[in-house]
Amino acid sequence: MSQAPFRIVVIGGGAAGYMAAISAKEHRPDAEVLLLEKSDKWLAKVRISGGGRCNVTHNCAEPRKLARHYPRGEAFVRKVFAAWGQPEAVAWFAIHGVALKIEPDGRMFPTTDDSRTVIDALQQAVQRSGIEARSQCPVTRIEPKGDGWSITTTSGVIKADRVVVATGGSPKDEGMAWLKALGHEVVPAVPSLFTFNLPGDPIRELMGVVAPNVRLRIAGTKLESTGPLLITHWGLSGPAVLRLSAFGARALHDMRYEYAVLVDWLGEVGEEAARGSINAETSAHPRRQLVNAECFGMPARLWTYLLLRAGLPLEKPLGELGKRGADRLLDVLTNDRHQARGKTTFKEEFVTAGGLALPQVDTATLESRVAPGLYFAGEVLDIDGITGGFNFQAAWSTGWLAGKGAAGK
């Protein structure tokens, strides 16, 4: 009587799940690899990422530098990236027909600017490897059975020797209840990567305006961020805001999303240098109206808004600004205050801070230290990155190592 083939089951048909299944099959070709997805939508986040272009990764290859873009899990992903990181991911996609390009901000997209290119590469790799993929197959229970695992699905029970869990983050505690039942510690989930709502704030009338380099702070905390800021019809967005929301995810949750946002519209110029710029402009063009001043090269609509916010007449000549007027202007420019209430998900992407506590996972194999034979990849772990391709990089890397770990002899 022939022995049944070694079976690895990967739960979750997203980026991490696909990479885990592909890696498992590559490292153990004789194994039977089964990929399960609860819905009929494979690689859903890959499809919508970057406005349908798919921000595959970021042009940051050095593990230590790359890991700094993860508010939670920095030390963990540094070790993961050292084993299989950005260069390996870029090379994998190149081998599978996906050429990547680097944008000025470091984000990397397929040269086709189409997420379908990435999806096709992953799905073709699965098909060529002989991996079985089942959609609309929700898992309702996982329990150890002898030397392996018993996986209960809505269409029956599946036996597995090893299991990789790549089910993504869960915004609700009950979504991780099965992990707790197996003895794992789960860090409660809170939203990360969101924009700031400013209900009733007049600044929203400037929707579409981009300030190229601002410094943001959350009043009463040490949280701050710099970078471009986008004004929207609901409040503030852009890289500076998204980075701040990611690193401040738990603190802002504890504040119930009610906090003061302090904006330095000049970035890191500093008040003394800013005053010097105003004085130089005044000396050179004393009769020039404030509205036409070119002290800081910011968008005209924003400059007009800030002058009015400082209570300064637009037509006032620079030579009549005076010290008191300059003080008022500088206060608004460097310490503008806006009240945030609530949050808005960034585009259609939802990232959570929270998940399986990292000390319970082996960084080399991604195997559970609590339940041997169970492996984890992607957002189910308490890892999340800022916007810019970092969450996908974590998915590719943890997926690859988890698949390799599950395939180990």
Annotation keywords:
409 residues; alpha+beta; FAD/NAD(P)-binding domain; Helicase, Ruva Protein, domain 3; 34% helix
Structural class: alpha+beta
Total beta strand runs:
20
- How would you name the CATH homologous superfamily of the largest domain? FAD/NAD(P)-binding domain
Number of helices: 13
Broad shape? elongated
Terminal CA distance reads 22 Å
CATH topology of the largest domain: FAD/NAD(P)-binding domain
The major β-sheet equals:
7 strands, antiparallel
CATH class (first level) name of the largest domain: Alpha Beta
Largest beta sheet: strand ordering: 17-16-13-14-15-12-18
Helix content: 25-40%
Instruction: Provide the low-confidence segments as ranges.
Output: none
- In percent terms, what proportion of residues is strand? 15-25%
**CATH architecture group name of the largest domain:** 3-Layer(bba) Sandwich
Determine Rg (CA atoms, Å): 25 Å
The average pLDDT score comes to 94
Descriptive report:
It is a single chain. The chain has 409 residues and is α+β, with helices and mostly antiparallel strands. It folds into 2 domains: 7-190 and 348-407, FAD/NAD(P)-binding domain (3-Layer(bba) Sandwich), CATH 3.50.50.60; 194-345, Helicase, Ruva Protein, domain 3, CATH 1.10.8. 34% of the residues lie in helices and 24% in strands. It has 13 helices and 20 strands. Strands 17-16-13-14-15-12-18 form a 7-stranded antiparallel sheet. Strands 6-2-1-10-20 form a 5-stranded parallel sheet, covered by helices on one side. A 3-stranded antiparallel sheet has the order 3-5-4. Helix 1 packs parallel to helix 6, helix 1 runs parallel beside helix 13 and helix 2 runs antiparallel to helix 6 (115-129). The model has no long low-confidence stretch (mean pLDDT 94).
